[in-house]
Amino acid sequence: MIENNGFKELITYKKAFKASMDIYEISKGFPKEEKYSLTDQIRRSSRSVCANIAEGYRKRKYPKYFITKLIDADGECSETMVWLEFACKCNFITINDFICVESAYKEIGKLLGYMINNHHKFL
Fold first, then answer.
1. Which of 2, 45, 46, 91 could be joined to 20 by an S-S link, Cβ 3.0–4.6 Å?
2. Are 15 and 62 in contact (CB under 8 A)?
3. Three-class SS of residue 36?
């Protein structure tokens, strides 16, 4: 039987979850007029990284599906970095927050790449 919450033990998931919570905290300071655009978008994409990892891991019995969900997670990771850059350029976050969170997402992207290229180790 497949363990229900095994994905929570993945380093990639843990780092993605922490980064998503960091996004949540820094996005609290975004202007109110950004609530339904930048704030919503960056929160959704950061959370989707975690959700795609979890969903793929639960269906890792099917390698193609697992890889597809990891690729989706990587896409959401890249999207989050774009929204971060907008937030920084619009002066909604500090350069230090940008560097810190962007660095985390770069690492998450590398970890996802490893998982994609070595998916057989997770099956």
1. 46
2. no
3. helix
